Amino acid sequence: GQPFDDDLSEAVNRASALDVLTVCAAGNGGNRPYVTNTPGAASTALSVAQTLIPPETPVLLNVDGEDYQTIHQRWSAPLEPEGISGQFQYGNCDGENGEGCLEFPAGSLDGKMVLVDRGNCTFT
After folding, report:
1. 63-100 burial, b for 16+ CB within 10 Å, e for fewer?
2. Cβ distance 10 to 22 under 8 Å?
3. Which is nearest to 123 in space by CA: 105, 96, 107, 103?
4. What is the rounded CA–CA span in Å between residue 122 and residue 124?
């Protein structure tokens, strides 16, 4: 079930109301980031996980001479030794869709590297 209607999550939240800290496994979804199941998804649980990270590669992102630490995920396009360059875009570039939860208009991302925040929606 969903964390808000799952009986194990409800039990964790009720235990927390009695000042009991519940430590739960985040889930058993494999070696993927952002995978959490109940009861670890309970709003009051301390959820822990193990992963084989770092199969991802740390990469420096240089924007206007300023370096930023980023992670190249294994599902990303391969990196070329000379690097990549191009126009960056955050969401729709208008302050909207910063998480990429909404579909981008066809062709609006052609030739661009899009930066999105993660956490509130899934996408493929």
Report:
1. eeeeeeeeeeeeeeeeeeeeeeeeeebebbeeeebeeb
2. no
3. 103
4. 7
Do 22 and 13 contact (CB within 8 A), yes or no?
Answer: no
| CA–CA dist 26, 77 (Å, integer) | 28
The answer to pTM > 0.85 is no
75's tokens = 């599902």
Tell me the per-residue pLDDT of 66-114, one tens digit each, with 9 for 90 and over: 887 777 666 667 777 777 777 888 777 776 788 878 888 888 888 887 7
DSSP string, 36-87: --TTTTSTT-EEE------SSEEEEEEETTEEEEEEE-TTSPPPPTT----E
65: alpha, beta or left, given left = phi > 0 and alpha = psi -120 to 50?
left
Rounded Cα–Cα distance for residues 70 and 59 (Å): 5
Six token digits for residue 32 = 């993927």
When pLDDT is cut at 50, 70 and 90, the band that residue 20 belongs to is: very high
